[in-house]
Write a structure and sequence with these properties.
The structure holds two protein chains of two kinds.
Chain A lengths: L1 H37 L3 H18 L9 H26 L17 H19 L2 H11 L4 H8 L3 H25 L1
Chain B lengths: L8 H14 L4 H6 L2 H40 L2 H30 L5 H43 L1 H5 L3 H42 L2
The chains are: A mainly alpha, B mainly alpha.
């Protein structure tokens, strides 16, 4: 009886590891993008990405299949990302810090087109990071390619509300990008 | 591209989406998402959580047992009054710890709206707790400064020979209460700012 329990535990652990590896393979790039949206520098994004992965591993035993795996992963990632950004805001209020340079791509010698694309990406991520939490989450999920009903599941709202929020977030992002362009 | 034109919205979104998804994880992120260190960190986090729980349970039990022992042993009005004040505070502190842990655990894998609602509740509880602590400190301070002159008058004969003891007592009391107020007001301010910040997040999710 005891051996069976140990086997079950081992098999549970092996299953969890396999599921986790599969989730990382499928959504690792997406997690990295979420981390980049909520972080202010590549180093902070790397730390946060690992944080998100740890949170997913820890939460995995609670996953009962009530939603899709992708919804589950993005819920955890955004929840952790929002908490991270709020924690940082409070810490920075107590001790203001100088932000690290956002990306190394700008300073790297490259072809004109590559540089342009890198600058555009950098501006996009920076603008996304400056949006209010609700707009940032809805837009990030939409840009990741999630359909409205799945975005609604991640946010905890209705698909109709997602459409409204998305339109508002789009306008906010457009304004931020124009501001960034003007500042250059 | 004219960023204000609504006609170009689909093109604009497609371009944002392409730019967004083209941002592949760099070498730092690839390292960060390696499963081995993630699992090691998860195990270390789990140990830390277990240690926090053990410390909270042990310290609360130890403190409560000590106070109950003191009350049973001394049987004086001042000890009973002190215990009547300290024991509920200890229980409340432990209750707050259990509440925050349970609240965080309950919303694992929950929708963003639920996660934010829970965070607002937790921060509201923290703010109320911090305010209650400040109020308690204020009551204790007032009580102490009312009691002190009576004590000095009552011990005038003993203290007359050593007046410097009065000065030390007053300076020590001022320092302790001053530091207490400084710390408590900082905690209240940070709790209020954090609560406002989370309320702003909740407001940004409504619409």
């Amino acid at each position: 009886m005891r051996a069976e329990t140990a086997d079950d535990l081992m098999s549970d652990d092996a299953t969890q590891r396999a599921t986790f590896a599969r989730l990382l393979a499928a959504h690792g790039a997406g997690l990295a993008r979420v981390a980049r949206v909520y972080a202010r520098s590549p180093a902070e994004a790397a730390d946060l990405a690992q944080d998100l992965a740890v949170a997913i591993w820890t939460a995995l035993p609670t996953f009962r299949g009530a939603c899709s795996e992708r919804t589950f992963v993005y819920r955890i990632a955004h929840n952790r990302g929002i908490s991270h950004a709020e924690g940082r805001r409070v810490r920075e209020r107590a001790t203001p810090v100088v932000a690290e340079p956002p990306d190394v791509a700008d300073s790297r010698p490259s072809l004109e087109e590559e540089l342009d694309a890198a600058r555009r990406r950098d501006a996009l991520f920076r603008a996304l990071g400056e949006l209010p939490a609700g707009s940032r989450a809805v837009l990030t999920l939409a840009l990741e390619g999630l359909p409205h009903d799945e975005v609604a599941e991640v946010l905890g709202t209705t698909p109709n509300s997602v459409a409204v929020r998305l339109s508002r977030a789009r306008t906010e992002l457009r304004k931020k990008l124009v501001q960034t362009k003007e500042q250059r | 591209m004219n960023l204000e034109s609504e006609d170009e919205t689909p093109i604009e979104i497609a371009r944002w989406a392409a730019d967004f998804r083209a941002a592949a994880p760099g070498p730092e992120l690839a390292v960060a998402l390696d499963p081995t260190p993630i699992l090691e960190r998860a195990a270390s986090d789990a140990r830390k959580t277990r240690r926090e729980w053990a410390a909270a349970v042990a310290s609360t039990t130890f403190a409560i047992a000590n106070f109950l022992g003191l009350v049973a042993w001394r049987r004086t009005a001042i000890v009973a009054a002190l215990a009547a004040f300290v024991l509920p505070v200890l229980v409340a502190l432990f209750g707050y710890f259990v509440y925050t842990q349970a609240s965080q655990r309950r919303v694992v894998g929950a929708a963003i709206a639920d996660h934010v609602t829970a965070a607002v509740r937790r921060n509201r509880a923290r703010y109320q707790f911090a305010r209650a602590s400040l109020l308690t400190l204020a009551v204790l301070t007032v009580g102490f400064w009312i009691w002190l002159p009576f004590f000095l008058l009552g011990s005038a004969d003993k203290l007359a020979a050593q007046p410097w003891r009065i000065a030390i007592a007053v300076v020590a009391a001022l320092t302790i209460f001053g530091l207490g107020f400084w710390r408590a007001t900082r905690v209240v301010r940070s709790a209020r700012e954090e609560l406002e910040s989370w309320r702003a997040v909740a407001a940004s999710l409504v619409g």
